[in-house]
Amino acid sequence: MIDALGYTVVALAGVGVIWGIVTAIANKPPGKAQLLYAAGLEAVTVVQSIIAVAKIIGGFRPVELATTIGYLIGIVILIPIAWLWANVERNRFSGVVLAVAALAVLAMTLRLLVLWIPAG
Amino acid sequence: MSGVRAPQTGSAGRRTNSGAGRVLVAVYGIFALAATARASVQLITRFEEAPLAYLLSAVAGLIYIVATITLARGTRASRRLALIAIIIELIGVVTVGTLSVVDPEAFPRATVWSVYGIGYGFVPLVLPILGLAWLWHTRPQAARPDEGGR
User: Quick one: which of A110, A115, A118, A111 has its CA closest to A14?
Assistant: First the structure.
């Protein structure tokens, strides 16, 4: 984990949550820009997980090693699944589905940032 | 609950995986993932610390998986399974939640249902209620005034 990158993911995910809610309130399916944004969020999340896993392989040992690895893997599959699920039936709820996934990414990243302490 | 009413578009309505149901499935899916992963880590790395709590964690994960799949399928048969899973889920979160308040020793704050799911923003407590409400809302044979001649 790199703190700055972690907080970038948190901020990007936060915008994703709001965007999803806004399209839902506007009663519209997610547009192309919103879907591209979700893809961008996914890309940054993947980069973060790769860097973190590389650091663990390089010898860093966080306090909760198994949980941290689980989060780093789990966090990258949320957006793709939500994307597919949101696109099967496109309406206002597709945006909420994307928002839910972004919220999960946000919460998991915050948790990862907390867990990223060397085991003593 | 009127805010989550799915728009009635054509003959596809009434299915648990349509409209707002897709959001419900998404949330259930995340909890299926979270609870199962968490339980696996707990059972593998420190089962002896709190076997009961961690086994319950695994059961919770399983119930979320069943609820996710059955709600996502949305067939008549899967509705019945979803109903059973969600009722067990509700009983589970209330029971474990209460026990964890009464006897914190037995339930370290490490399961999805501890203190009614406080670690997950109480979503585990609200989710089964929303699930049951959604099953009720999408129940098959009920004649509804807003459905016109169908």
Answer: A110
